């Protein structure tokens, strides 16, 4: 393999802050400290309240987030009459740390404007979506005032835009763009009067492909991680630096709302006693983690389909071409895997056959591996898997040309499933004979993402990358701190 340059995993400013933060720490202790911290952070939930007047379309909006139709069993109840009687929690399907709360509508006999905020206990929530329809009303701005007093972030969402467009389209000289621009100006006018500048979205729960539903979803996806990190740091600040009353209130709130369990809080308290790892340090760590690049090596022999698989993971179209020469490409950034760099590492046969120690040296700079299965007789994938296991890292095993295997076995009088099961069994037997860890074998056709095990591969890959991110980050930080300390000693 050619020599290549591996870019830093975090940007320079975060790199510098991390080095300064751990300058006096023992590098050997850093991994366990960070892994314990990030395990607790992984349990931390944030709560987003969807609020507004009765009939504004809050529950319908919730169902869009859930990907459910109104008559689905688990859907939030919707209707012309008041359907939500108490705050109801829904787990966001795409963000496991986010809980959406469908609050009862404001301005009904059951929940009058004067008592609404106190009854709903706005202090329980980390963020709000203020849902309005048709026009901005006094009650909408009362909610905005209450949220502003608590200095909580919020989105201002006008729903039922499809109904508005249908109504206005009957006017002469109708222009959808002008009508939408006017709606936005109306919303922003009242918000600017209060010197507020939240995101404003114009959406329809029925025509989700039109208007700004996708923009709303994308914005939440982009901002929710930062919000969660800020809320976690804020909690630590209250628990460790706010005095015993503030600490008691914060811990009770966190436990009562189920954001963390009692064991998690104990872990944080013990960590602070041992290391002084408080809110300021945690904030620096979480900021660096949010920019941390995970490096995944896709390993295979020349002509095994490494480049084709990388393109398939990135959702790019592939064309069958002649086998490429051995090389390590520049990393590919895939939209479906944020902050992950996929490295096309082709032509591994020369190094695997030459020296397993050299192979381990090359592999050690990566965090995770996709090993493309080779011919069972050559079994180079066995050597690669052994090298990765000796590095105590994780990998997936993939056969990228399952369709070609089927085409070459037309002489067998059995169906496709039996042939594929036989291929899996053959590879599994080889792994067992080599005393390797039991692994699922993914049989795919990189040119057809809908066939064989490709969807299962993507699901397993996403789960595994989320699992290894914390440990990869922790050991990377320990390594750069150790290098920094050695450099200081030498100078």
TrEMBL record:
Coiled coil: none annotated. Residues 44-223, 292-464 form the IRG-type G domain. It holds the Pfam family IIGP. One of its GO terms (molecular function) is hydrolase activity. Keywords: GTP-binding, Hydrolase, Nucleotide-binding. One of its GO terms (cellular component) is membrane. SUPFAM superfamilies: P-loop containing nucleoside triphosphate hydrolases. InterPro entries: G_IRG_dom, Immunity-related_GTPase-like, IRG, P-loop_NTPase. It comes from the Eukaryota. The keyword ATP-binding does not apply. Belongs to the TRAFAC class dynamin-like GTPase superfamily. IRG family. This is IRG-type G domain-containing protein. It comes from Phoxinus phoxinus (Eurasian minnow). The lineage of its organism: Eukaryota, Metazoa, Chordata, Craniata, Vertebrata.
